[in-house]
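Q&A log
Question type: sequence-to-structure
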Amino acid sequence: MTGMPGMTDNPLPDPFPDLGIHPLRSARRPNLEDLFGSDKVRSGCWCMWWRIPRSQWIRQFGESNRQTLYRLVQEGRTPGLVAYFNEVAIGWVSLEPRAGSGSSQKAVDTGD
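Response status: OK
Response body:
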């Protein structure tokens, strides 16, 4: 890191030169679909478990959860990051501010 006192550029080569991490946008949609594949668990959840009430998640398990995730992308939101190695999608992480995370709010003890 430069610009910070006591820090210099790392003189070592990048250990993962072929690794890339990108926000999910419409153009990356096919990559995420390849990553999730046809496995019922991955292709049914579409990382909506934490975003919507559980009863809704169960009702729309599968194609409707997929459409809901992509609706977030169409609204200009970034619901997650796709990791690539040699241009092939190898990983996914869902992102959302805590305030927007419907299911997790039920599990958070605010101490009130």
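Response note: The two ends are 41 Å apart (CA to CA).
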